[in-house]
Write a structure and sequence with these properties.
The chain has one domain. By secondary structure, the protein is mainly α. Helix content is 74%, strand content 0%. The protein starts with a helix and ends in a 14-residue tail after the last helix.
């Protein structure tokens, strides 16, 4: 576990960098460790303010990632719906395709 409050600020910056790269498991591990640390430590006000600033940046990254995922899921849903419509209009279930023998 980290011993100094400086270590925690450095770790917060590492978690911020991980959020920028989409490494959400690293971000979660940081918050789990910090939660455990805060259970037994009194936080200096200056460090608390700096960590809150970093937390807000991480939160912003999370919101951006959620928006991208939501848009991607919507796009995927639209594409699947269109594909289903195309299959239905072509009668995909009833059409049988035969290979043409080129040797004939």
């Amino acid at each position: 576990m980290f011993n100094s409050q400086y270590d925690w600020e450095r770790e917060a910056h590492n978690a911020q960098a991980a959020a920028e790269q989409g490494q959400w498991n690293v971000v979660q591990q940081y918050y789990d460790r910090r939660h455990a640390w805060l259970q037994s430590t009194e936080l200096m006000p200056e460090l608390s303010e700096r960590l809150v600033i970093i937390d807000r940046e991480i939160e912003r990254r999370i919101l951006v990632a959620q928006a991208v995922l939501t848009a991607t899921l919507a796009d995927t849903s639209t594409a699947r719906r269109r594909l289903s419509q195309v299959k239905a209009s072509l009668g995909a279930g009833s059409v049988s395709y035969q290979l043409i023998d080129r040797s004939a």
